[in-house]
Amino acid sequence: MSQPILLDVQDGVALITINRPERHNAFSREAGDLFEQTMADVGGDPAVKAIVVTGTGDRSFCPGADVESLDTMAHEDDPTTRIRKFGERSPLDALPETPVLTRTRYSAPLAVSKPVIAAVNGACAGVGLSLATHCDIRFASRTAIFAAGFPRRGLTAEAAVAWTLQRLVGHGAASDILLSGRKITAQEAFEMGLVNKVLEPQELMPHAMAYAHDVALNASPRSTAVIKRQLRLAPEQTYDEAMMLSFYEVLASLTSEDFKEGVASFREHRTPNFIGR
Length: 277
Known about the structure:
Layout: E1 5-10, E2 13-18, H1 29-43, E3 50-55, E4 60-62, H2 67-74, H3 108-111, E5 116-120, E6 123-125, H4 127-134, E7 137-141, E8 145-147, H5 161-180, E9 184-185, H6 186-192, E10 197-199, H7 201-218, H8 221-233, H9 239-254, H10 257-267
Helix pairs in contact: 4-5, 8-9
């Protein structure tokens, strides 16, 4: 059997691929564990400046949990024993600067301080949708299909997708997606604001990788980490709180080495050499 999660790191970009083509890239427990560990590894690697998450092939990004696993759980007396409880150890605990409740496999893109781009190459449903909505940027193949699916399996909105999805598309559209469980085309997802760009299938990965490499090459890792935290906190802040935080973060950035390098590289018309401090 092939490795369920693949990792390739080149020039500051980590490409993480969900690799279960025989199950259309559905998450098994093994795949979930390995994905979580891989996200923790690249999240803590200073050589990695941006992360791309995708699925093998051109049919599925991740259609959710493996149906065989769900079938097994449906016939167990106490399937809750299979679920890791909050407070139990996670590889993502190695990223102490992130909130504890983001340190789970499907919220891992929010837990890491680096930009995470989802390249949605096909079916994206259930926990696959939860995973995609926790990413910072989403590019989709024109053939991609999105669905919550939870109510059609007797489940509820998992991994805080009711929160992440509502932030992206608003209450009305999130209610439509989550309560109906219906399928959403890539174009409809774009019009809702769920994805940033829709591309032809053969253009998806080149575009996602080029975007990630541009970020890795030209954006300060220190700045992107702070901005990602600001974006996460903003919906829960008042305007005054957001303004004060931005003021103090700007003051801190003015004394950073990356600020000095950013100004110098701009004046000298060269690529910056950011060190993340």
